[in-house]
Amino acid sequence: MDSEQTPQRAARMRGRCWQELDEHRWWRTEFPETDPQAPAKLARVVIADVRARGATCPDELTG
Question: I need a labelling partner for 60 at 20 to 30 A (CA). Which of 2, 40, 50, 52 fits?
Answer without folding.
Answer: 40
